[in-house]
Amino acid sequence: MEIIDRIKSGDVRTVSRMIRNIEDRVEAAKAVIKEIYPHTGRAHVIGLTGAPGAGKSTLSDALITNYRKQGKTVGVLAVDPTSPFTGGAILGDRVRMQKHAEDRGVFIRSLATRGALGGLADAVDDSIHVLDAMGKDIVIVETVGTGQSEVDIMNNAHSIALVLTPGMGDEVQTIKAGVMEIADLFVINKADQKGASKLYRELQRALDMATTYQSGWRPPVLLVENIADPDTFLDRVDELREKLDEHYGILRDQAILGERERRKARVQLMNALQGAVFEPLVQSLNDSGKLEEMLDTLVQKQGDPYSLAEEIAGRYLKGAGDTG
Amino acid sequence: MEIIDRIKSGDVRTVSRMIRNIEDRVEAAKAVIKEIYPHTGRAHVIGLTGAPGAGKSTLSDALITNYRKQGKTVGVLAVDPTSPFTGGAILGDRVRMQKHAEDRGVFIRSLATRGALGGLADAVDDSIHVLDAMGKDIVIVETVGTGQSEVDIMNNAHSIALVLTPGMGDEVQTIKAGVMEIADLFVINKADQKGASKLYRELQRALDMATTYQSGWRPPVLLVENIADPDTFLDRVDELREKLDEHYGILRDQAILGERERRKARVQLMNALQGAVFEPLVQSLNDSGKLEEMLDTLVQKQGDPYSLAEEIAGRYLKGAGDTG
Question: B223 and B291 share a domain?
Fold first, then answer.
């Protein structure tokens, strides 16, 4: 397909349109992903996650500049759990896009949910493939770091950095959303603020308790602040980038990259199965009016969801033995 | 079943065990839910959501006391996206449990994720049914309000209150996680803090923009603060409770309750279908070794997830026509 060549040559308009299609779940995008898939796996995918206001955008922006100095090209996906209220516009994103607009080595896009359950992790995954196939050395995925959907999104990354700030309510609560145990690096941002050293100690204590580390990689905790001293900030970003490189190196050397790739492949396959099995089932139930019928039954309390679901499974699935 | 009678009579030990079984996804729990289902639908289910540190527990606690004064019994489910790191203990919860320990009209439990994707909304849903069948007039579901999974959880509620605090990073970011548009009430907690009136104005402006309100219910915005003046705090909580009652009344009167029940039934059915269709499929692929085979194919880039998923769908699903 011509579009594959255009993506591989890094054509920005084609890539932009492709990502929009992925976001809108246009069926044709799937065919392109199928073709692209063999050309992926080169990029170092970095996940950057943390609570709103933790300073992910600023950090990401500094990382882009830093990677560019290393001669690496960078793609950024800012994942935005959009609501109709805010219209999905990420203001900081537009500013960044302008800042790097002249640089062909940087590609930044935001990705929004369009309501589809589970669809976002899927869209992120496919978009990473596009940026990877487009030739970006580094793909940074930014997202708000709470909730299972964000964990799913982060599972697409090789190296996951969790950005925390001191004093954002109860620290333990903030970091307990399942992101903590998948993080490969911790960044305490706004480290000039009160409570930074307390948070640092808490994190180290939690890391002490997690006795085993795959490959001996103990997640480092970096203290970053970007207000008082811009030079120190850039030094810390440089350190963050080095740690990310180091982590990727270890993944590569110890064949753990393969394990991560396998984990990613698993997530991808599950998402694809949802799309191929579950969604058509729901669609078919909807089209035939059966779904509304079942909802009537439930609302009138004349049946329960489990029994109805089992009935559907019986009608819809071939014997389990056939799948082997 | 004897257990159904014991739940309906409000036996705390049976209910506790039942909820633990739901959490652990014990198969027997499903059979109980099937039997319970016809005895549900009496409780007013209130969702209380907001960022960590927003003060949900304090507010919930005050609501419990207030509802008790109205002679209503209350069940509370504190939903906790646990991580192994923190062990899932909600400290504030234990304190509350002790406070209301003597009161047979209050039942508080925390629910944790045990890693299962999508399993939490499911567990919350089933647990609501148990508290409902147990005879609780009010069921309060508390959860951290960001991410799709939390939206799914909130979809089980009749009346959803979003708790916000001034100055928690970027307000617009904080409230954009899809919870904003499902909220029926907004509570600005810690309203004595800087930025409260700005947040109030921002919310009102956002609500002005959302032109249509189902049934003419425009979500009220309540300002609450619980430090300077305990009496004012209790007045505000009383106002919150009144607004919740009023909202439920409107749902009832205008047959919108039916719509909400239908939306809830839809979510319940989808979750049950996932359990009956998708999970056995994955299990079967796993047991037969086919899953590992496919992961090999993907990691070696000799196939793509979409094609593999379509192949599985072809093998596993009966013709869509059979489902009508």
Answer: no
Q: Which of B85, B150, B199 best probes binding to A when mutated, by most A CB atoms within 10 angstroms? A: B85
CB pairs A-B closer than 8 Å? 297
Q: How far apart are CA B324 and CA A243, in angstroms?
A: 56
Residue A261 maps to a domain: no
- Same domain for A216 and A162, yes or no, is yes
Q: Distance from B230 to chain A by nearest Cα, in Å?
A: 22
The verdict on residue B52 lying in a domain is yes
pLDDT band for position A89 (50/70/90)?
A: very low
**CATH code at B220?**
3.40.50.300
Which residue in the block uniquely carries the two structure tokens 């180091």? A246
- Give the range of the structural domain holding residue A288, as residue numbers without chain letter: 271-323
Express each pLDDT in A15-35 by its tens digit: 999 998 888 878 888 899 999
Do B300 and B198 belong together in one domain?
A: no
Together in a domain, A6 and A59:
yes
Which of B40, B52, B273 has its CB closest to that of A312? B273
Say whether both B248 and B296 belong to one domain: no
pLDDT for res A317: 79
**Residue from A189, A63, A33 nearest A138 by CA:** A63
Concatenate the DSSP letters of all residues of A228-244 into one string: S-HHHHHHHHHHHHHHH
B295:A268 CB<8 A: no
Chain A residues whose beta carbon lies within 8 Å of the beta carbon of residue B37:
301, 303-305
For A176, the enclosing helix (H) or strand (E) is none
Please indicate if any CB of chain B lies within 8 Å of the CB of A55.
no
- Cβ atoms of residues B142 and B156 within 8 Å: no
Q: Which residues contact A215 (CB under 8 A, 6 or more apart)?
A: A250, A251, A254, A256
- Per residue in B217-226, pLDDT (tens digit) is 889 999 998 7
Rg (CA), chain B: 22
Determine, for residues B262 and A299 on separate chains, whether the beta-carbon distance falls below 8 Å: yes
In this structure, are B290 and B166 located in the same domain?
no
More confident residue, B94 or B309: B309
Amino acid symbol at A9: S
Query: From the list A81, A178, A316, which residue is nearest B317 (CB)?
Result: A316
**Complex ipTM value:** 0.73
Residues 286-315 of A with CB under 8 A from B: 288-291, 294-295, 298-299, 301-310, 312-313, 315
* Cβ within 8 Å, pair A309-B147: no
First to last CA, chain A: 34
| β-pairing verdict for A106-112 and A138-144 | unpaired
Q: Is the pTM of this model over 0.80?
A: no
Chain B closest CA to A166's CA: distance in Å?
12
